[in-house]
Specification:
Shape: elongated
Number of strands: 46
Strand content: 25-35%
Radius of gyration: 33 Å
Structural class: mainly beta
Length: 764
């Protein structure tokens, strides 16, 4: 039965007890005991005459944790637990461990309640609790060891039937118990999938459901049992409040059930409040039928249907939640691609607010904590003259950003137009390379950071058209983000073709190898500070060494080996005021310290740098290997340049003949040749428009940075390329992975704290 109640949530069915075994005992002493003991109950849900009109065609079965509470002549409650018949409509109940059988003289002496956790005995009187949300503590007392915490108590406690033996005769084998539903079963069909706003609403989840009336009518409470009649409600419950243990996605229909005290009439206005990830919806409407015991009613709850089937038109309001700590971001892209020397590019550095799915909303109207950018500064650079200058606008400031051919004391690099939009213009220098530029407020707080990509080869020149995917054709850049030159087999300087490493879901790069002469890549390329000349020294108190490159900029989120070599991010959070969730705390930390790589060698966190968040790169459907192109969006954390986004999960589908992971070299869709090439420029040249035909794209085996330590590994040996999709496995990310003997287009083993390269596809 409970399995039906908790999982199917489709109907309420009244129960009947087919028979009960009795045992004659000694004559009663002082009227305390009856003549017989109820040693066994056979309960059947299969006979029509034991059901009320609330049931339809659903099949109800018993579950091992089901219990029935019985009151006999001794005035005590006796609990009977299912022992035989689990998974069937006919079950046998015996006294629960530590319980004695109830005694009686005639069947009329016996009264029973199912489920037993709703029974209450006070001064010899039997009460039932309808919508009593404080009953969860009694589950273990009643032996309910596997109760589902993600079911509304207001439903699971209230499939309540009252035993009425009446004139039933034991001798003829007829059931000695009949059960009757005492409340109105209300099914709320929450369906936003067909609404006009479905595109955005379906990305949210329902976290809480509250049901009340506008005039305070009782929806539940404590009632005394008198035969089959529900007694008056004492301590009335006027508000049903269910906080969903696991938020339910609005991309699918949600249908919770609640059983209410039958006091609501057609003149009563119901109020349903849905709290979603980002909104609070309030629905009001009058039912078209009075609530009665044993009745079943259905209420569609959506933004474009009637409140009750064939009934009053639904009224509702929708507002953004004010209790959600808003997340602010700056601009629409995190990477500025400057293809040629002296080219000037522009970054939108306006403050916007996003939602919990990290959409690039460009919404300024909801910004509640204005913090405009005042100036820009180079955080690190791969060398002098990567960045030549920044546009000079506004009032004079102290030295903030190194200006080419100008003295220290340059003016502000942020300009704001008449509409309130703020912009940063960056001019590329004469050299190729990469840099990270930050924008700061007037109090010197880092607000956001941007990767400035100045390659020698243009990654958008002669881009590849991948057609061997599952979801459509994609235009693909010719090199990974951060690479200086396009890779090709046997190139003499493969380190220039290596892209930056990224942790899955983060927007800021974590360096690239110096050379391909060893598996550790010779470390990460040396980086320079804001003057582009001196060795990088961020002076960050969260790590103990001065950084000469990004290799030294790392911190533990959590580690299982007990290392105390670095301060841990987890300890920093534990020492905070806990005004933020752990996930939000870490996200804010990464914004403030974009150079910091966060490692995690703890399986308790599935080797992720952040508690589970599948939407960081805008493609949260991790279990779907065949994404719908139109449903993938570019999130605010996407590291790609304007007009591009991180590769989807199926971009590499055609890299094997089976379109699946393979260790059979004949199934690799690669050009003829040896994986091992001169100068350790190892990799595979994959065909992307057909099987062993057409053009190829060479992927360089640049290795990765491990989730468990700061060093590079497997340089020139293997390659892992992140996709925007999480993998449906242990908090991993989906990726392309290969070595000389393995090609995995859909590898699901990449822990999100690991650092892999990223390929960009053109936005559609």
């Amino acid at each position: 039965m409970k399995k039906f109640l908790l999982l199917a949530l489709t109907a309420i069915t009244a129960l009947g007890l087919a028979s009960c075994n009795r045992q004659e005992i000694d004559p009663p002493r002082e009227g305390v005991q009856g003549k017989y003991l109820l040693t066994e109950i056979t309960a059947s849900t299969g006979d029509d005459d034991t059901k009320t009109n609330i049931q339809s065609n659903s099949v109800v079965v018993w579950n091992a944790d089901d219990q029935i509470a019985v009151k006999g002549t001794d005035g005590a409650l006796h609990y009977y637990k299912l022992k035989v018949g689990g998974g069937t409509p006919v079950g046998k109940f015996f006294p629960a461990p530590g319980q004695t059988p109830a005694s009686y003289n005639t069947p009329a002496d016996l009264t029973a309640i199912y489920p037993a956790c709703a029974a209450e005995l006070t001064d010899g009187e039997l009460y039932v609790n309808i919508n009593n949300q404080d009953l969860s503590g009694s589950f273990s007392e009643r032996g309910l060891s596997s109760w589902n915490a993600d079911s509304p108590f207001t439903f699971t406690n209230n499939d309540i039937k009252v035993a009425v033996p009446g004139s039933v005769k034991l001798e003829d084998g007829l059931p000695n118990f009949k059960f009757k539903q005492l409340g109105t079963c209300c099914s709320f069909i929450i369906d936003f999938t067909q609404a006009d706003q479905a595109r955005s609403l379906m990305m949210e989840s329902v976290e809480r459901i509250q049901i009340s009336t506008l005039n305070g009518v009782a929806l539940g409470g404590r009632a005394k049992l008198t035969g089959t009649t529900l007694g008056p409600i004492t301590n009335p419950v006027t508000n049903i409040d269910w906080t969903v243990a696991t938020p339910r996605p609005m991309s699918a229909l949600i249908q919770p059930m609640f059983v209410f005290y039958p006091g609501v009439t057609t003149n009563t206005t119901l109020k349903i409040t849905l709290t979603t990830t980002d909104h609070e919806f309030v629905f009001t409407g009058k039912p078209t039928q009075d609530f009665e015991a044993g009745r079943r009613l259905t209420f569609p709850v959506t933004v474009d249907k009637n409140f009750t089937q064939g009934g009053t038109l639904l009224a509702y309001t929708s507002t953004l939640r004010t209790d959600v700590d808003q997340f602010y971001y700056y601009g629409g892209t995190n990477c500025l691609l400057l293809r040629t020397p002296n080219e000037i590019g522009y970054l939108d550095v306006t403050q916007y607010v996003t939602d919990s799915f990290w959409h690039n909303t460009k919404n300024t109207a909801d910004v509640q904590n204005p913090r405009p950018a005042s100036y820009a500064r180079i955080i690190w650079s791969e060398g002098a003259d990567v960045i030549a200058s920044a546009t000079v606008n506004g009032s004079a400031y102290d030295y903030k950003l190194k200006m080419a051919d100008s003295a220290a004391g340059a003016t502000d690099a942020i300009s704001t137009d008449s509409s309130g939009k703020s912009f940063l213009a960056i001019k590329r220098g004469s050299a190729a390379g990469n840099a990270l530029v930050g924008i700061y407020d007037a109090s010197d707080k880092l607000l956001w950071s941007y990767h400035i990509w100045c390659p020698e080869d243009d990654p958008t020149d002669g881009m590849y058209e991948y057609t061997q995917t599952n979801s459509g054709n994609y235009t693909v850049m010719t090199m990974p983000i951060g690479a200086i030159k396009k890779a090709y087999p046997g190139m003499s300087n493969p380190e220039t073709a290596a892209g930056f490493y990224y942790q899955w879901g983060r927007k800021d790069p974590m360096g690239r190898p110096k050379n391909f002469n060893s598996l550790n890549g010779g470390g990460v390329l040396n980086l320079y500070g804001s003057d582009q000349i001196s060795t990088l020294n961020l002076g960050d108190p969260d790590y103990s060494v001065s950084a000469s490159n990004l290799l030294d900029c790392w911190i533990w989120f959590s580690n299982s080996n007990g290392s105390s070599e670095k301060n841990t991010l987890k300890l920093a959070w534990e020492g905070s005021d806990k005004s933020k969730t752990l996930g939000r705390f870490i996200l804010d930390y990464t914004i403030a310290k974009p150079w910091m790589c966060i490692f995690c060698d703890d399986l308790a966190y599935s080797h992720s740098w952040l508690p589970l968040d599948d939407n960081l790169w805008g493609n949260g459907g991790g279990s779907n290997k065949f994404p719908i192109m139109e449903e993938i969006y570019k999130s605010i954390f996407d590291p790609s340049p304007e007009g591009f986004r991180v590769a989807p999960q199926d971009l590499f589908a055609g890299f094997t003949s089976t379109r699946q992971n393979s260790s059979i070299i004949e199934q690799f869709n690669v050009a003829t040749g040896d994986y091992v090439n001169p100068n350790n420029a190892n990799g595979w040249a994959f065909y992307y428009q057909g099987w062993k035909t057409g053009p190829t794209d060479f992927y360089l085996a640049q290795g990765q940075r491990s989730r468990a330590y700061s060093f590079l590994s497997n340089v020139s040996d293997n390659l892992a390329v992140w996709t925007s999709s999480p993998a449906n496995q242990n908090n991993a990310g989906s990726m392309l992975y290969f070595v000389a003997t393995v090609v995995h287009p859909y590898n699901a083993g990449g822990r999100r704290a690991s650092c892999f390269s990223v390929r960009c596809v053109k936005e559609h």
